[in-house]
Structures are given as structure tokens and as C-alpha cells.
Amino acid sequence: MCPLVLTYFLCVLQTSWQPLPSLGGKRHLPQPSGPHSVGFVDVLTPGGDGDGVGGVLARLLYPTPEQCLKEHSRWPAWTEDRYLTGMLSFMQSVLARWPSWAPRSEYYGMERLRPLSPYLPHAGFPALFRAFVGRVHVPIVEGAAPLPPPTEDGWPLVVFSHGLGCSRTTYSRVCYDLVI
């Protein structure tokens, strides 16, 4: 549920004084907690008119023998401007018309954010976000070679949907920690 993501972003903004790890001048989310480094590829399925419009963009994560720390030049940004602006639009919609099924008491800071929400500018929001959080990268390696599976059965498969109002980068840490 994406109001949880908003709550997470609010917590990040409130605790932005706590430094994230940094490597090679790049601030990044914590390293994957599993025994392997994580590789990824982004895949866009064909859309209705053949040019990708209406297709599905998915991020595939998998174990890799490549060392994540040595490949930090291939780490993706955690947030992109268009996704930050999209999440702001979603947040403003939710705050304007709070869903009846979502208990307000479980979402930290929502009541304090509601009066400010209409005044957050879409054009400047990504810069404002980065002023508080900085440019953060995800410690996964783009296009890395997959690690051969340990058995002939292959690797387990997990399908994770980020939910309404989010993007494939929102739950990056959750997903890369699921990689065995």
C-alpha cells in the first residue's frame, strides 16, 4: 500500500541527518543482506501499439558473482525525477480524498502533511526531495552476469508488485534482500 511508502519517505526526510553509506562519492542504500551480490535488468513488455506504450516495465533481480562494491559505477539511482513527481501527485490525491479503508492513525505525519500538500510544486519537488535526502543509489549491478544456480532446479522465483502509486524503485531494498 503506497501510503506506507509516503510514510517511509517522511521518515527519511525527518532522519536525513543520519548518513547513508557512501562509496566512490555515491550515497547508497545499505548493501544486500544475503550471501550474494545482486544484478538486475529492466524489461519493457510490448504495448498495445507496438512501441512500448501501454507495456509493463519490470525490474528483474537475481544473484550475481560480480562484486557489487567493485561495480558501483553501474548502480542505478534510487529515485528518478518523473517517479518522484508521480509519487507526489499520488500523495496529493490521497491526502485530498483519504480512502475510507485506510486508517489515518497508522500513517505517521499525514495530518501534518495534509495542509502543505497542495502547495508542493511538481516542477521543483525532485530538487526539494534531493535537498533533504541527496542523490541515493541502489547497490545492485546493472546487466550483471547471473550466478549459475546451485542445483538443476534453478533459483526460487518471487514476483513482487509495488502497488498503486509507486514505481519499480520504491521497494528496492525489500526486493534485493529477497534475492538469495
Task: Report on the architecture of this protein.
The protein is α/β, with parallel strands linked by helices. The protein has one domain (about 1-180). About 25% of the residues lie in helices and about 15% in strands. A 3-stranded mixed beta sheet has the order 1-2-5, with no helix packed on it. Strands 4-3-6 form a 3-stranded mixed beta sheet, with no helix packed on it. The mean pLDDT is about 80.
| Percent range for β-strand residues | 5-15%
Q: Give the H and E element order.
A: HEEEEHHHEEH
Query: Are there runs of 5+ residues with pLDDT below 50, and where?
Result: none
* Strand line-up across the major sheet: 1-2-5
Question: Main attributes?
Answer:
single chain; 180 residues; alpha/beta; three-stranded mixed β-sheet; 5 helices; 6 strands; globular
Short overview:
The protein is of the alpha/beta class and 180 residues long. It has helices spanning 2-14, 81-96, 110-113, 125-133, 172-178, and strands at residues 22-23, 26-28, 37-44, 57-64, 136-137, 141-142. The chain contains 5 helices and 6 strands.
